[in-house]
Amino acid sequence: MKLLNLILVLIGLMPANTHAQTETDSPEEKLEKDRKAIKSLAGFYQVSFNYAEVSSPDPNYQFSKPYENHGNEWAEIIVDEPKRIVIQHMLAINDTTIIKHWRQDWTYEDTDIILYKEGNTWKKGSLTPADVKGRWTQKVYQVDDSPRYQGYGTWSHVGGHDAWQSETDSPLPRRESTVRKDYNVLNRGSRITLTKNGWMFEQDNKKIIRTASGDKLLAIEKGYEEFSRIEPEIFAFAQKWWASQKSYWADVRSVWGDITGSQNTFKLQTMANGKLLYETLFSLGDQSIKEKWTAEQNKEKIKTALQPYLVK
């Protein structure tokens, strides 16, 4: 009983102790620790993906098969500003095949946010300075650089451990978007923790059925994406490919920024004229490199190409 009481006392003290440790840093020192943690997400990795549904309020619900996969992923810092860090991910399939993967933008004390609603529809939101004080927003984008989800939270650096977490809504994950029709929103509970050899992206996700009458929980899913550092040699082709493509994709990001910045609500369709959105932009990128388009030509052709995918 004495041991139990001691444990309970120690647990009770932990939040106060954690708060005291974080207060030892000045705002400038804390900001620099945050930046260092975010920048450490970049690198060359072997990634394992593991997802499984763990519970449902419906006793008759049929749990889906657990998802497991792995790959080699290069995460490159493409923007490094005092309060904005952008990391582009690339998947190296083999020595001659590369997939431009997701992108994460980190912004500090950012009051602007884009929130996912449902049905491939996003709405601009506004946070108060108090909401985001000391916090970083992670803005996640699709392979075609269209918005995916955005969430904000505080980086903690206590006892040698660096971690960040948030909760926000998103579209269905790519692994389920073409095979599941029984839910339409994924509420993502995300935690990023730095590890000795990389980082862990842990998720507690709620699969939601969203209708005009409200949200209904379908199932809860647990997910782990483990990023383990590896040698960079296998990414030689990826680095060469990105060196030739990065200017074009900077123009893609610029056009998307104009689109999302000019509309309070916007909706996308992923297929138009028989082609998926990412197929159209990837093909355009190859053509841009081959024909040596200027930035102005890139932007004009990207704007035109995107129009069929924007739902009026």
Protein model, in words:
With 312 residues, the protein is α+β, with helices and mostly antiparallel strands. 31% of the residues lie in helices and 45% in strands. It contains seven helices and 17 strands. α5 packs across α6 and α6 (277-291) runs antiparallel to α7. The chain is globular, with a radius of gyration of 21 Å.
Point out poorly predicted stretches. 1-22
Q: Span between N and C termini? A: 66 Å
Q: How much helicity do the residues have?
A: 25-40%
CA-based gyration radius: 21 Å
Helices, by number, come to 7
- Order of secondary-structure elements: HHEEEEEEHEEEEHEEEHEEEHHE
Strand content: 35-45%
Report strand order across the widest sheet.
8-7-4-3-2-1-13-12-11-10-9
- Strand tally is 17
